[in-house]
Design a protein that fits this description.
29% strand, Pectate Lyase C-like, 11-stranded parallel beta sheet, alpha/beta, 3 helices, 402 residues, 12-stranded parallel beta sheet, 27 strands
């Protein structure tokens, strides 16, 4: 054997090549001793991360279950509260009707024959209604009305429930009976009620604050709403007959009818309605029919009467500002002594209309048709009659100027 052999036999054993005095066997042992901890470390890291992810997933599952349990418990508690509240309201209603019934029995069927009894009944009524929902409040009002305590008769006055808040009450409250008489709800608050497609007759809503009420497609007969305040009230397609709005303030009211112009049955109708001394702001009467309606001494701002029909309507001494009568038919309408400014009668048809002693400023009659119209002794400033058709129009003693 040569000296350069990489493996030689000595004493019968194989000799391995050496590197830096380390044999291959030593190098393998060293590598294993280095790699094994590294592998174990990587395995430990991966295992730890997997465990952490599993813990996070478990926490999420536990959180979801806890959330579900909380929601179920919360719903259960809410249901319990609602049931408790409903039971409380039922007990209140039963207690109230029992106590009021006893007062009626002891006082010969009247809660107002004695001022002390009337005060007690009023306090009980207002305190009970404040704690009831809309349906039970409606039941209280019906109970009092059917017990004849909310009607004014020759024998006794209606129970005073002024300041009562009637919110979201049902239509059944307003169902009156001829033999009982007129329902009196004066001085209260009527809020957020839907009373459309109803028939309301013999009701007194004087001095009430009426907000966000829907009277569309409703008939109101012999209803008193005098000295009241109305805000955002809908009378679309309604029929009003014998309704008293005198001294009432009407804001953002709508009597507008969207039906065909020639369909009389689909139009809002006001018949024998009194709006004397009323204050109307942004009220829409478009396409409405007004017959025997009084606006005596009323104040109208931004009122719209476009496409409306007037028959025997009084605006005596009324004040109209920025009103629109475009394409309107006016027959037997009295504007005498009225103050009319920035108002448009363009393309309107006026017959037997009286403007005597009225004051008109910045008023348009362009393309209108005037038949038997009286402007005697009226004051006309900046009034336009461009393309107007005249027939028997009287201007005697009238003052015309810019």
């Amino acid at each position: 054997m040569g000296k350069q052999d990489q493996a030689i036999q000595t004493d019968g054993r194989r000799q391995y090549p050496q590197f830096f005095n380390l044999t291959l066997k030593d190098i393998l042992k060293l590598m294993i001793s280095l790699i094994l901890p590294l592998v174990l470390g990587i395995f430990t890291v991966i295992s730890t991360r997997n465990q952490q992810k599993e813990v996070l997933r478990q926490n999420e599952r536990d959180g979801w279950f806890r959330q579900q349990e909380w929601q179920i418990a919360n719903k259960h508690n809410e249901l319990q509260r609602e049931m408790t509240l409903e039971q409380h309201r039922d007990n209140l209603l039963v207690t109230y009707t029992t106590q009021i019934g006893e007062l009626l029995e002891r006082n010969k069927g009247s809660l107002t024959s004695s001022s002390i009894i009337a005060t007690i009944a009023r306090a009980k009524t207002l305190n009970t209604i404040r704690q009831l929902d809309a349906l039970r409040t409606s039941n209280v009002i019906r109970f009092l009305y059917e017990a004849r305590q909310l009607t004014n008769t020759n024998e006794s006055d209606a129970l005073d429930i002024s300041t009562v808040e009637l919110i979201n009450i049902t239509k059944s409250v307003f169902k009156t009976v001829d033999k009982i008489g007129k329902l009196s709800l004066t001085g209260g608050y009527l809020l957020n009620c839907t009373l459309n497609e109803s028939f309301l007759v013999n009701i007194d809503l004087s001095f009430m604050q009426i907000n966000h009420i829907n009277f569309s497609v409703t008939e109101l007969h012999n209803v008193t709403i005098s000295c009241a305040k109305l805000q955002d009230v809908e009378f679309t397609f309604a029929t009003l007959k014998g309704v008293d709005f005198s001294f009432t303030q009407l804001n953002e009211m709508n009597f507008f009818s969207t039906g065909p112009r020639n369909d009389y049955n689909l139009c809002s109708r006001l018949d024998n309605v009194d709006m004397s001394f009323a204050r109307l702001i942004s009220v829409n009467f478009e396409s409405a029919t007004l017959q025997d309606v009084d606006f005596l001494f009323a104040e109208l701002q931004h009122a719209t009467f476009q496409l409306a029909k007037f028959d025997d309507v009084e605006f005596f001494s009324a004040r109209l500002y920025n009103a629109s009568f475009r394409d309107t038919k006016l027959y037997k309408v009295d504007f005498s002594f009225a103050r009319i400014s920035y108002t448009n009668f363009s393309s309107a048809q006026l017959e037997n209309v009286n403007f005597a002693f009225a004051e008109l400023s910045h008023v348009q009659f362009s393309s209108a048709r005037l038949v038997n119209v009286n402007f005697s002794s009226a004051i006309l400033r900046n009034v336009s009659f461009s393309k107007t058709i005249f027939s028997k129009v009287h201007f005697s003693s009238a003052a015309l100027g810019n």
